[in-house]
Amino acid sequence: MGKLLVLTLLGAGLALIGERLVAIRQRTNATREVRSVEPRSCHLIEGLENGSEDIDILPSGLAFISSELKYPGMPSFAPDEPGQIFLMDLNEQNPRAQALNISGDFDKASFNPHGISTFIDEDQTVYLYVVNHPHMKSTVEKFKFEEQQHSLVHLKTIKHELLKSLNDIVVLGPEQFYATRDHYFTNFFLVLLEMILDLRWSHVVFYSPREVKVVAKGFSFANGITVSLDKKFIYTADTTAQNIHVLKKHENWDLTPVKVIHLGTLVDNLMVDPDTGDIWAGCHPNGMKLLAYNPEDPPGSEVLRIQNVLSEKPKISTEYANNGSVLQGSTVASVKHRKLLIGTIFHKALYCLL
Ligand SMILES: [Ca+2]
Ligand SMILES: [Ca+2]
């Protein structure tokens, strides 16, 4: 009886592991290859060699780029260098990326910038909010942008019990933002377990100085977050569920589900085209190639555009795709007047004319 029980338990255990492995391979598109798609003209951006995870473009055409992210489980080609924020002026004929100076009471050595979001106040002051992972923890840093000085002045660090394992942020008021928590756990091994079991404990948090609350939950891996042009809807990417959630924003900042757009690729950051309202999504066509990085068979890049987001049948098109020979691990695609910037977790960045 004892042996039979051991055998039964062993069999059940192996079956469960097998089932989980199959599920992970499906969630990460482990067998998928991409075919190249390239806009009219693209070139790599000089000076951005070690990641450009998130990119936010101001109405004036100035683009902020977060660079050199260190994220558990992901490769980093510049592990000893602190992160930086770069600026590019898309009004220039040949825009160049230049690192911004950071001033104020701020520990630059542990700067590890991830998702970013800009906010323009009524008096036209530009603020940049940055998800930071100093020593692999999560904070939100608020900076004031000083264009003449080409610098960011650090104003404050925001920390909260609910603001853990942060990924991206969208700022919608002088002190109000939504942020995605990509995992419930913060310990790497527990995160791994959370992913393997697909617990769906990832969520979206609302922050204001008065109130902090969870406003949307049940995500496998909540990642990019942004807002519609009319500010009525929030778009959130669920990476390993391979979809985008459209959520309605209410007066009290609560969010309610409207619909889910399935993309069949591992969606990372989302940006909205200021001219059309289309969503541009930086995606990972094959997540397994990211997790098990092999320079001989690198992870590729993919950018999708979603038109007529609120209609019954949104139109989804591939605007850029590459097998990793040019660009690896794309996270974001930011557009402004037919100019496109594509960023990556740890690799290069691309500038294209559409
Ligand atoms: Ca962002
Ligand atoms: Ca992200």
UniProtKB/TrEMBL annotation:
Catalysis: reaction(s): an N-acyl-L-homoserine lactone + H2O = an N-acyl-L-homoserine + H(+); a phenyl acetate + H2O = a phenol + acetate + H(+)
Superkingdom classification of source: Eukaryota
Family matches, as SUPFAM superfamilies: Calcium-dependent phosphotriesterase (SSF63829)
Enzyme Commission designation: 3.1.1.2
InterPro entries on file: 6-blade_b-propeller_TolB-like, Arylesterase, Paraoxonase2, Serum_paraoxonase/arylesterase
UniProt GO BP: response to toxic substance
Keywords, alphabetical: Calcium, Disulfide bond, Glycoprotein, Hydrolase, Metal-binding, Signal
Binding site for Ca(2+) 1: 53, 116, 167-168, 223, 268-269
Cofactor(s) recorded in Swiss-Prot or TrEMBL: Ca(2+)
Enzyme class: hydrolase
Keyword Glycoprotein: yes
A molecular function (GO) term: acyl-L-homoserine-lactone lactonohydrolase activity
Disulfide-linked positions: 42-352
UniProt-annotated catalytic positions: 114
PTM (free text): Glycosylated.
Glycan attachment positions: 323
Cofactor: binding comment: Binds 2 calcium ions per subunit.
Residues binding Ca(2+) 2, per UniProt: 54
Purpose of the protein: Capable of hydrolyzing lactones and a number of aromatic carboxylic acid esters.
Quaternary structure note: Homotrimer.
Protein name: Paraoxonase
Record lineage: Eukaryota, Metazoa, Chordata, Craniata, Vertebrata
